[in-house]
Amino acid sequence: MSRIALVDDDRNILTSVSMTLEAEGFEVETYNDGLSALEAFNKRMPDMAVLDIKMPRMDGMDLLQRVRQKSSMPVIFLTSKDDEIDEVLGLRMGADDYVKKPFSQRLLVERIRALLRRQDAIAGEEIEETEETKVMVRGELVMDPLRHAVKWKGRDVSLTVTEFLLLQALAQRPGFVKSRDQLMDVAYDDQVYVDDRTIDSHIKRLRKKMRNTDNEFSAIETLYGIGYRYNEE
Fold first, then answer.
1. What is d(CA 117, CA 122) in angstroms, rounded to the nearest whole number?
2. What is the three-class DSSP state of 132?
3. pLDDT in tens, 57-72
4. What pLDDT sits at residue 125?
């Protein structure tokens, strides 16, 4: 049973969404501010977190930043209807997805399940080794899907589930262009719609992490109006 942390200062959302998730078979922990959630996470990380952005004591952005120092667990942001800037910032900081308020609880459940399936596919030690799961080496890049491990020039790089899948898709065929639509298919469930900006934000975050490891990293190339390409270095 997956443990989902739901963090929001709206008690109606905490009550209704937690009831829905529990009915779907999830174990749910609820918190009405970011600081309370962080204190609990420091003792035991959940399998996944759904975070509101605007909360008292510690907002969702600050909480995500603290979480990413310790964990690459999937994170979904809940954003207000017109907060496009917050959505982009959240994705660049390491969120895997976002859902706009007011939202369909069925949609939220589908996105939670999609993220957990992707994490299981990456991290499952029991998965039989195939072309998709065996260790991949591309020049200075080493990716181990079964352990969700990435190394660049021998140094570990911590990636979210979405970032890992995007890098894996690009690096599998160096020199070949992947369109945004193709990357959406790789990173998201068929039932989940995302726009071009979401993929762009994940790529920017991925590049930033790689450049924090090596400031000369330039393997991911943007082809404006077309997509992205991985160039083996």
1. 9
2. coil
3. 898 889 999 998 888 8
4. 46
